[in-house]
Write a structure and sequence with these properties.
fatty acid biosynthesis; two-stranded antiparallel sheet; binds nicotinamide-adenine-dinucleotide; alpha/beta; Enoyl-[acyl-carrier-protein] reductase [NADH]; about 15% strand; FabV-like_NADH_b; EC 1.3.1.9; binds sodium ion
């Protein structure tokens, strides 16, 4: 069928298989162009179908010839109805990996559940033996707790005071004032339960228990800090508490892996347009201004450039992994550069509906947003019949 983007609120309800495929191919080409990385050879990526997780899977496979197992939660296609983009991304990834002679299998289901952990363990046992890198890159609004049965919902709210600031509707370009009422204690607990480190630790415990972690195994999860502008609603808000918990969990996991000489890291990544970040108020305006400045300075990166740098210049240098004073890997260094942040803060004060398309990179934001769903990708013929039933080789 012919597929067009269909918007509902902050999300696009359709996705384009050929556009998603092209995005994946572009990322693979980028990784190949950067040369080989002396990295892990057997890799599990949890949250492998979009954003930073997909970039990690691609970097491991095409940078280090790694066998990869990807876990994700995506919607399969149905006759006349498109799949979610992560489905098509994973279909394209597997097809390319298999063509290149690389092992790649995928598991589609709720990574928070005991069942999906068990299914993954069985697959690793059967096919890979032991693994040496686990990337934890889940972004989810909900988690059904596997022990208590409680359904936790994460929220993006400030703690203590109402937060009032500007935001932009990136579709209409309208800049407006928003205010977000502070959370209650339950909101904090729920957000930590969903986006904190408990599930990450559960995964690593389960893998260790099953003797599936190779000596020296590494695990990495992704975090965000960001500027003072977004602090009240991000790093000092409910999601920030979850990230604090995730970062603290890295030390606990490292302790639990001492006998294997294993190590857990948190990598602090750059702000990027993903399905998760478009829904956070204030962030789209910040990202539009940030993109403008970083592109001007020639230091803009997307997920794939970020993760390539994480592997090549942080995780696999054959030396110590460089970390900040809190033990975190920083690949948000370019975003957080003082000159970049000063320029963004100046633009922030000036931003109004009349000038935002000019002083900010609204066009780049929109393009990245549509690209997430496989639309507006160069080289794709959107007038041609699309194969919406495109399957994932290891699943279909
Ligand atoms: P994303 O939405 O692109 O990817 C989320 C992944 O999690 C997808 O593969 C999805 O299928 C999977 N997933 C969600 N719920 C699941 C479930 N229940 N079971 C199995 N899989 C599930 O998100 P992203 O932006 O790549 O975020 C990944 C991590 O990076 C998050 O921890 C996020 O906070 C962090 N991060 C994001 C940014 C940013 O600007 N986007 C910046 C820094 C750090
Ligand atoms: Na991801």
């Amino acid at each position: 069928m012919i597929i067009e983007p269909r918007m509902r609120g902050f999300i696009c309800t359709t996705s384009h298989p050929a556009g998603c495929e092209q995005n994946v191919k572009n990322q693979i080409e980028y990784i190949k162009s950067k040369g080989s990385i002396d990295g892990a050879k057997k890799v599990l990526v949890i949250g492998a179908s979009t954003g930073f997780g997909l970039a990690s899977r691609i970097t491991s496979a095409f940078g280090s010839d790694a066998a990869t197992i990807g876990v994700f939660f995506e919607k399969a296609p149905a006759e006349g109805k498109t799949a979610s983009p992560g489905w098509y991304n994973s279909a394209a990834f597997e097809a390319e990996a298999h063509k290149a002679g690389l092992y790649a299998k995928s598991i589609n289901g709720d990574a928070f559940s005991k069942e999906i952990k068990q299914q993954t363990i069985d697959l690793i046992k059967a096919d890979l033996g032991q693994i040496d890198l686990i990337v934890y890159s889940l972004a989810s609004p909900v988690r059904l707790h596997p022990v208590t049965g409680v359904l936790h919902r994460s929220v993006l709210k400030p703690i203590g005071d109402t937060f009032a600031n500007k935001t932009v509707d990136f579709h209409s370009g309208k800049v407006s004032e928003i205010s977000i009422a502070p959370c209650n204690d339950e909101d904090i607990q729920n957000t930590v339960a969903v986006m904190g480190g408990e599930d990450w630790a559960m995964w690593i415990d389960a893998l260790k228990e099953a003797n599936l972690l190779a000596p020296g195994a590494t695990t990495v999860a992704y975090s965000y800090i960001g500027p003072a502008l977004t602090e009240a609603v991000y790093r000092k808000g409910t999601i920030g508490r979850a990230k604090d918990h995730l970062e603290a969990t890295a030390f606990e996991i490292t302790n639990s892996l001492a006998d294997l000489n294993g190590k857990a890291f948190v990598s602090v990544n750059k702000a990027l347009v993903t399905q998760a970040s478009s829904a956070i108020p204030v962030i789209p305006l910040y990202i539009s201004l940030l993109y403008k400045i970083m592109k001007q300075e020639g230091i803009h990166e997307g997920c794939i450039e970020q993760i390539q740098r994480l592997y090549q210049e942080r995780l696999y240098t054959n030396g110590e992994v460089p970390v900040d004073e809190k033990g975190r890997i920083r690949i948000d260094d370019l975003e957080m550069r003082a000159d970049v942040q000063e320029k963004v803060a100046l633009l922030w004060d000036q931003a109004v509906t009349e000038n935002v398309a000019e002083i900010g990179d609204l066009e780049g934001y929109r393009k990245d947003f549509y690209n997430l769903f496989g639309f507006d990708v160069a080289g794709v013929d959107y007038k041609a019949e699309a194969n919406e039933m495109m399957g994932i080789e290891s699943i279909a």
